[in-house]
Design brief:
Layout (H helix, E strand, L loop, with lengths): L4 E7 L6 H12 L3 E3 L18 H6 L2 E2 L12 H15 L5 E5 L3 H9 L9 H14 L1 H11 L1 H6 L5 H12 L15 E7 L4 H17 L2 H8 L17 H4 L5 H26 L2
Parallel strand pairs: 1-4, 1-5, 2-3, 2-4
Helix pairs in contact: 3-4, 5-6, 5-8, 6-8, 9-12
């Protein structure tokens, strides 16, 4: 009887050690790694998104790292379709594959498929964009929290574009027809969710942010500030710099906010994996 193929899902909160663990598995099983990280997918983003090092990328073949430009549209639907097509192809020559990343929606949609999503509502987007400009990010956060508190807790609170899209989805009753390819091979899924004590995880996050500053995060953010309106830049590690470049806060405030927002994001990731990947 032919041994079933195996798909390893290595996931967990940011700074938990997913990349190192995935590389160990990849070397053991002689297979590539399929990234499930919604920010490492962008070519122009490096330090702030904790992208694998050049040495790590040279050691094991990675897919969906440096995959698209920040100027290109990329979302859960595109990832799901492309990643499934890739898995179908790679399972022709590999018995085991590894998916590694902390973007819960990418992993859930890859395995279970996409929920039917509504199309764009330009009028509502304009209304929400105006509200964002007049009342700030908290106004959008409060709207989504009132509509779907579970979805609010699972997502990036600091990303206005994602908040607007989430509100749009909750308010719309007309789903769009989204299709992704079926899996072409039978395989077993093995979840490997990395769990750390909270104080250990938070210490790792704080030390990682310190290292990012040493590695030149300020220059990376400075060089990207002209693109701060793009969705890819509406994320922890970049958005905290914009007030600093305007002279509105000190660099110590930037560092503290990045650490705080990263810890908050990690906490939401832990909650997401606990409830969604059971």
């Amino acid at each position: 009887m032919t041994e079933k193929k195996l798909l390893h899902i290595v996931t967990g909160p940011t700074a938990s050690g997913k990349t190192d663990h995935a590389i160990e598995l990849a070397l053991k099983y002689h297979c590539p790694i399929i990234s499930a990280d919604s920010r490492q997918v962008y070519k122009e983003l490096d330090i702030a998104v904790a992208k694998p090092s050049k040495n790590q990328l040279a050691t094991v073949k990675h897919y969906f790292i440096d995959h698209v430009s920040i100027h290109e549209e990329f979302n859960t639907g595109l990832y799901t379709r492309q990643a499934r097509e890739l898995i179908n192809d790679l399972f022709n020559t590999h018995q085991q594959l590894i998916v590694c990343g902390g973007t819960g929606l990418y992993i859930k949609s890859l395995i279970h498929g996409l929920d039917a999503l509504p199309g764009k509502d330009d009028a509502l987007r304009k209304e929400l964009s105006d509200l964002l400009e007049s009342d700030g990010l908290s106004a959008l956060q409060n709207i989504l929290k009132s509509l779907n508190s579970e979805k609010f807790e699972a997502m990036d609170h600091q990303n206005p574009q994602r908040l607007i899209r989430a509100i749009e989805i909750e308010k719309s009753g007309q789903p769009a027809d989204i299709k992704v390819p079926a899996f072409a091979h039978e395989f077993v899924i093995k979840y490997d969710v990395i769990e750390l004590q909270r104080d250990v995880l938070y210490d790792r996050i704080n030390r990682r942010v310190d290292k990012m500053f040493e590695d030149g995060l300020e220059k990376e953010a400075f060089d990207l500030q002209a693109y701060q309106h793009l969705n890819a830049l509406q994320t922890v590690g970049y958005s905290e710099w914009w007030p600093y470049f305007k002279g509105e806060c000190t660099i110590d405030v930037v560092k503290d906010k990045i650490k705080q927002h990263t810890r908050n994001y990690a906490k939401r990731q832990v909650t997401w994996f606990k409830h969604q990947l059971e």
